[in-house]
Specification:
The protein folds into 3 domains: 161 residues, 3-Layer(aba) Sandwich (Rossmann fold), CATH 3.40.50; 60 residues, SH3 type barrels (Roll); 80 residues, Translation factors (Elongation Factor Tu (Ef-tu), domain 3), CATH 2.40.30.10. The strands form 3 sheets. The protein has a 6-stranded antiparallel barrel with strand order 12-15-14-13-16-17. The N and C termini lie far apart (52 Å). By secondary structure, the protein is α/β, with parallel strands linked by helices. A hairpin with a 2-residue loop joins strand 16 and strand 17. It is built from 7 helices and 17 strands. About 2% of the residues have low confidence. Helices cover 24% and strands 31% of the residues.
Length: 359
């Protein structure tokens, strides 16, 4: 019987994952990853204590062991520092993707193996498929909840030690199972915060840890100053709300199209297919990671340019061992340096990389 350490967040998805693993005959134990404590309560709602209690209550209901694993030092070094350094340097990092590779299937997996477990399981909406060269990751059945994008930078050896028990189910299925099994958190709402920090808005987090650096807001077409921003790190490419500049015209809104780091300027334009910099046909991707063999030749595959976007066809052209040129069949809106692009062959996740240049 394989021993599995299940990352339990206190939410319904990982709770049903525990239920399913138990029914499938695994020797399962729950673990809450203690990654962050907001001791000063400066960032609002960070309900880690409630999450621990909810996860423990589910474990008790199922009769499985439960432990709290302190990963705060590793999380600060591998995720929080990466996040803050990225925003300070003008890029848009993705802490959720890094959390999966560095924490859940990095530090936690190492911890699990050291303590006699064979695998680590999570409540991700993703599926595994055994192949001759190891496990592959397939999209979850529920396309509205599919989370394979967040697994794009995992390594093959991590995938071989992973379990995704709920990937064959839809969210309504999950809720139904939780209610039928009388799980204590069956009706708990999904959290929307930063990975395993809590229900914290990114702007609130950045406001506390990255100093404001005011600069001009400039219209991209004619370089006209329109106002002042508090710091480039508060804005993302494609952002429409919260810019603070009225359009003064009906049916048109400004959108963020770029960041000029040399001038510390936020570039905006009216939303349209012709807005400068807003749509991109090509990009360079670095820090490539593959699940299985690397793609080493020119290929026609698909990609998700961000989490909620559908797969789109691309032309893939390697330029070195660790970077590639990607050309989109159709221009893509609001790509941001530092974000992750996930690569696919149909439903199969091939890997991913990080935007290093956007044309």
């Amino acid at each position: 019987m394989k021993k599995v350490l299940l990352a339990m967040s206190g939410g319904v998805d990982s709770s049903v994952a525990a239920l399913l693993l138990q029914e499938q005959g695994y020797d399962v134990e729950g673990a809450y990853m203690k990654n962050w404590i907001n001791e000063d309560e400066i960032l609002g709602d960070c309900p880690w204590q409630q999450d621990i209690e909810d996860a423990a209550a589910v474990a008790e209901k199922l009769g499985i062991p439960f432990r709290v694993v302190n990963l705060m030092k590793d999380y600060r070094e591998r995720i929080v520092d990466y996040l803050l350094e990225g925003y300070q340097s003008g890029i848009t990092p993705n802490p959720d993707v890094m959390c999966n590779r560095e924490i859940k299937f990095g530090v936690l997996l190492d911890y699990a193996l050291e303590h006699g477990f064979d695998q680590v399981a999570t409540g991700h909406y993703a599926r595994l498929e055994e192949t001759a060269s190891g496990n592959s990751i397939l999209e979850g059945v529920d396309k509205n909840k599919d989370q394979t994008y967040f697994l794009a930078l995992m390594k093959s050896d991590q995938v071989d030690r992973a379990l995704f028990p709920i990937g064959h189910l839809t969210k309504p299925d999950i809720r139904k199972l939780a209610l039928e099994s009388d799980l204590p958190n069956a009706k708990k709402k999904d959290s929307q915060g930063i990975c395993f920090i809590g229900n914290i808005k990114m702007q609130d987090f950045l406001r506390e840890y990255v100093p404001d650096r005011p600069g001009p807001i400039i219209r991209a077409e004619d370089d006209m100053p329109l106002g002042e921003h508090r710091g480039l790190h508060y804005f993302t490419i494609g952002q429409r709300k919260g810019i603070g500049i009225p359009s003064n015209t009906d049916h048109q809104n400004y959108v963020v199209v770029g960041k000029d780091r040399d001038r510390n300027a936020l570039l905006i334009s009216f939303e349209s297919p012709h807005a400068p910099r807003l749509y991109s046909s090509r990009c360079a991707v670095s820090s490539l990671s593959f699940i299985g063999p690397a793609i080493s030749s020119e290929s026609r595959i698909e990609a998700k340019v961000r989490y909620r976007d559908p797969r789109v066809p691309i032309s893939y052209s390697p330029t070195s061992d660790h970077s590639v040129e990607i050309t989109f069949d159709d221009p893509q809106r609001a790509l941001a340096l530092g974000q992750v692009i996930a690569l696919y062959d149909g439903e199969r996740l091939l890997g991913g990389g990080i935007y290093a240049r956007i044309d």
